[in-house]
């Protein structure tokens, strides 16, 4: 098969298009012929060498795949060869073939195209942030950082679907703010020109946000605590900055606030069975047209380096796809 291989940690030049051994499915596994895969920030972190769950070079990156089941390993009963599926692979998905556990492989309804489910990672991450970690209640105010990205653009839509009373998004340009508002956010804050915490307090009448979704950490998380409402939850799910956040516990226990960590990857590895009801709920929302994965760009799989460069430049909106 052909694959993108990280042959050494470093910049996008370390992504090489080359021949790679065809994978053979073991017990409880399926082999999938790739139709689409997507780029996640974790892929970039793994390429740089800063991702805790990343592999040592040489390795194939990629966290999700849409494709067709080509072969079944021993013990697989609920899937058939030829079925179109979305899956979380065992190895990387930047390849023409990939292996996935049957437990993390989900048939795609005929009513949905490949691109509708091409970002299984961002779909389940956004859903988990709002439901599992964030415990969103109807009527609450949600602040979504990096709201123009893959997870953020999905979370803005899902927050509305799940009954949020007010949705606020931050983004790094006026163009991105327009995009966030078009997704259904009540307010979009230009994070490079405005103090987001002050603005959140203004639009909430001084109460603050009940739920904050933060992939940035560092100073952004620290500042976020100043606009977190009493009984509010701040969910940290990545660290885009080099410096981790440093927080005081006093503002937490004095007003029943919480800082919660969430990792979709850890959930996938430790409790894979928990993702099936989430995926089934998301597929229903996609079929009903209540949720739409925002596609910002498409690249040939062989040009994955260009896709990484686009995301690292922070110019992209929505999801970036790779097509074999």
Report the portion of residues in β strands.
Answer: 25-35%
CATH T-level fold name of the largest domain: Quinone Oxidoreductase, Chain A, domain 1
Low-pLDDT stretches = none
- How would you classify the helix and strand content by structural class? alpha/beta
pLDDT averaged residue by residue = 95
Describe it:
- With 324 residues, this protein is α/β, with parallel strands linked by helices.
- The protein folds into two domains: 2-119 and 293-323, Quinone Oxidoreductase, Chain A, domain 1, CATH 3.90.180; 122-265, Alpha-Beta Complex (Quinone Oxidoreductase, Chain A, domain 1), CATH 3.90.180.
- 29% of the residues lie in helices and 26% in strands.
- It contains ten helices and 15 strands.
- The chain has helices at residues 41-48, 120-133, 150-161, 174-182, 196-203, 218-224, 250-254, 264-270, 275-288, 304-312, and strands at 2-6, 15-19, 29-39, 65-72, 84-87, 97-101, 105-107, 141-144, 166-171, 187-190, 209-214, 228-236, 258-261, 295-300, 319-323.
- The strands form three sheets. Strands 3, 4, 5, 6, 7, 14 and 15 form a seven-stranded mixed beta sheet that branches.
- The longest helix is centred in the middle third of the chain and has 14 residues, at 120-133.
- The radius of gyration is 20 Å and the shape is globular.
- The termini are close together.
- The mean pLDDT is 95.
